[in-house]
């Protein structure tokens, strides 16, 4: 004969245990959803940043492959890196603003 009493049951009744559960609807999205315009703009900025980074790496490779003296290469790399950061900065700032907006939309802030 199989016992129908659950191992955690005491005398046939469940002990009082408090648990907190977050209720979810079955049709609730599994991931945060953002407006398509906002998401498209963020992807465009990310694409632009990717292009900026790729161009920077190409320039650094050109410097490395050049017959220029090492001392001059160091100087040129520093200048290129500073220009790269300056060129990226407005896009990174805009992307952060969009992410904050996205966060506010997600959590109704």
Question: First CA to last CA: what distance?
Answer: 58 Å
Q: Nearest-angstrom radius of gyration?
A: 28 Å
Report strand %: under 5%
SS-based class: mainly alpha
Write a concise keyword list for the protein shown above.
single chain, 109 residues, mainly alpha, 62% helix, elongated, disordered N terminus
Q: What would you note in describing this structure?
A:
The chain is mainly α and 109 residues long. The protein is built from two helices and no strands. The protein has helices spanning 36-65, 70-107. The radius of gyration is 28 Å and the shape is elongated.
Brief account:
This protein is mainly α and 109 residues long. 62% of the residues lie in helices and 0% in strands.
What secondary-structure arrangement, pairings included, does this model have?
Blueprint: H1 36-65, H2 70-107
